[in-house]
Amino acid sequence: MTEIGHPVTDLLARLAGEDPEAAREAALELGDRREYGAAPLMLEILGATSDARVRNGIAYALSAMRVPEMFEVVVELLRQERTRGFRGTLLYALRPFDCTPILPLLVDLVIGDSWEAAREAGYLITEIEVVSTDTWLPLEERLRAALEVVEDPGRREIIAFLSEFFENDAEEPA
């Protein structure tokens, strides 16, 4: 799986190195090559790095590779204050996965995070196929309450769409 001039060992060294841009590029290359053997190191760096560029590059690559262990690492990162303002790509990286278990977190991000994170969280919510009424009703109430106080028109649009989306979905006969 290696090519002349870009051996996997070189990519791994760049991934673990001090240059954030080189690490990001190495992560993306490893993902493009589907170098699954690099996944453990990528997961370790993903959870530990403070550099959003590196974190986003690794998350994107692991998502493309559909590495299941990435889900929990990214969810933990989404819960950390240090990722606030840099969560859009992390959420985008969750697109290949079933996000039903983190539906309450996604609603929180729609209500209170950056516009990009709110948009991606909203998209992930609409991709969830089955939500029990017991789960959805309290979340719908939170969205309606947020709609009363949120002033940003873009965020209001996302919140209103999600409320209507699930209201219409609930009305369809099974």
Automatic annotation (TrEMBL):
Gene3D superfamilies assigned: Leucine-rich Repeat Variant
Domain of life: Bacteria
Pfam families xrefs: HEAT_2
UniProt-recorded name of the protein: HEAT repeat-containing protein
Entries under InterPro entries matching the protein: ARM-like, ARM-type_fold
Source organism of the structure: Actinoplanes philippinensis
